[in-house]
Design goal:
Layout: H1 21-28, E1 35-39, E2 42-50, H2 54-71, E3 76-80, E4 83-88, H3 98-109
Antiparallel strand pairs: 1-2, 2-4, 3-4
Bound molecules: the ligand C[C@H](O)[C@H](O)[C@H]1CNC2=NC(N)=NC(=O)C2=N1.
GO molecular function, one term: 4-alpha-hydroxytetrahydrobiopterin dehydratase activity
Catalytic activity: (4aS,6R)-4a-hydroxy-L-erythro-5,6,7,8-tetrahydrobiopterin = (6R)-L-erythro-6,7-dihydrobiopterin + H2O
EC number: 4.2.1.96
Amino acid sequence: MNKLASMTCEACQADAPKVTEHELAELIRLIPDWGVEVRDGIMQLERVYKFKNFKLAMVFTNQLAELAESEFHHPGILTEWGKVTVTWWSHSIKGLHRNDFIMAAKTDALLDS
Ligand SMILES: C[C@H](O)[C@H](O)[C@H]1CNC2=NC(N)=NC(=O)C2=N1
């Protein structure tokens, strides 16, 4: 399992630091299937997961919802027939925190179960 997936999110206050460029370069290597998007000036992690149908996409979506609640850190989720687009960023700092990389790795780990 990805070492990030075994970590837990820290409480992310509004003054928490965004990841630096160096940390971003290091951390993104640990989650190679994820991309970095910038929307309205907010850096985000994004991945599209493919499924055989809508029902399986919804099963994954609900597993992800449980994960988010367990860590109290929540993604953007677009669930469609056969695919789920997951987007992680930290609302409180309007950017990327280490928590987002941890949650991306934990999201990937849902497929291992
Ligand atoms: C309103 C609620 O406190 C916030 O949304 C919490 C919980 N979930 C969260 N999720 C994410 N991704 N970022 C946050 O800053 C965050 N903060």
